[in-house]
Every structure is written in structure tokens, then in C-alpha cells.
Amino acid sequence: MANSILATMQGIEEEAKAILADYDAQIKELRGQSTQKLEQIKLDCDRETELELSELEEKLAKEKTLLQETLEQTIAKNDEQVRSVLSDKKDGLVQQIVDKVVEKYGN
């Protein structure tokens, strides 16, 4: 009878080890699946981020080009206005300069 109880206990222990090994295998498999899913999600997010970044870079490049063109036009317009004002008032400015020099240094 002692052998029978020992054999039964050993049988139970073996079954418990088999169940535990099965659970460990399932856990390992699920971890692997989770890791693969996470890697796929990471790759998808990276691709989406790269696409968004590319679109933003393109948009910003266009905006920069437009702003540079606007700046160049504004500078050209301002330069033209300055030249126009200076040429209109050139004679008056020259006379003012001559008057100040004469005033300060005499005849």
C-alpha cells in the first residue's frame, strides 16, 4: 500500500510538472507574440511618424520659399522707395549739407 501511495503521489507530481511545463510554454509563446505585436506597432508608428515628418518638412520648405520671395520683394520695393525719395530730395539735401558746412567752417 505504501508503494501504491508513493506511486500515486509521483504520478500526481509528474502530472503537475507536465502542467507547469505546459503553462511555461504557453507563457513563453504569448510573450513572443506580444513582443512581435509590439515590434509591429513600433514599426507602424515609426512609418507614420516619418510620413508626417516628411509632409511637414515639405510644407515648411514651401513656406520658407514663399517667405523668402516675399522678403526679397519687400526689400526691392523699399530700396526703390528710398532711391526715389533720395533722388527727389537730392538737391535739397546737398544744399542743406553745403549750408551746414559753410555755417560751421565759414566762407
Features:
107 residues; mainly alpha
Describe what this molecule looks like in 3D:
- The chain is 96% helix and 0% strand.
- It is mainly alpha-helical.
- The chain has one domain.
- The longest helix is centred in the middle third of the chain and has 87 residues, at 2-88.
- It is rod-shaped, with a radius of gyration of 44 Å.
- The mean pLDDT is 91.
Uncertain runs: none
Query: What is the H/E string?
Result: HH
* Count of helical stretches: 2
Structural class: mainly alpha
- Major sheet size, sense and barrel closure: none
Rg computed from alpha carbons, rounded to a whole number of angstroms: 44 Å
Q: Provide mean pLDDT, rounded.
A: 91
Helix content: over 70%
Ends distance: 143 Å
Question: Shape, please?
Answer: rod-shaped
- The tally of beta strands, per DSSP, is 0
